[in-house]
Specification:
alpha+beta; 130 residues; 5-stranded antiparallel β-sheet; 2 helices
Length: 130
């Protein structure tokens, strides 16, 4: 698989419904819940790209630009944007479904490190690119 194909293959999507237990007193989605969902889908994207175990190393700036409310349906879309020797930068967009129209609600970048069975960093591209 070429690098371009692997980047495309890294795309991961998830659909979620925001329940009352996931909201703050104002009826908006609790930010920590959204970040947790973003971290999970980003990890799956990094796993697909690297072909093995990954761990979250850092979370870059998060932009909560549109409120997500109780009862909303959201789609999370993650894709590896770039990589280093053992690290990957994953962009995650959270789209709020508004009567059939997708609105970008939240964006963030997550840094993951590929790890081997020993728990130490391993090369991302090891035995992976054709």
């Amino acid at each position: 698989m070429t690098l371009e194909e692997r980047l495309a293959h890294s795309e991961a999507r998830s659909l979620e419904h925001i329940f009352p237990s996931n909201t703050n007193p104002l009826g908006n989605a609790f930010g920590g819940h959204i970040v947790s969902l973003m971290d999970k889908i980003a990890a799956y994207s990094a796993h697909r790209f690297s072909g093995g175990a990954v761990v979250t190393a850092s979370i870059d700036k998060l932009d909560f630009s549109v409120p997500i409310r109780m009862g909303d349906f959201i789609e999370l879309v993650a894709r590896v944007e770039s990589h280093g020797r053992s690290s990957m930068r994953v962009r995650v967009d959270v789209l709020r479904d508004n009567a059939g129209e997708s609105v970008l609600a939240t964006t963030g970048h997550f840094i993951f490190v590929a790890i081997g069975v020993d728990g130490k960093p391993r090369p991302v591209l090891e035995n992976r690119v054709a």
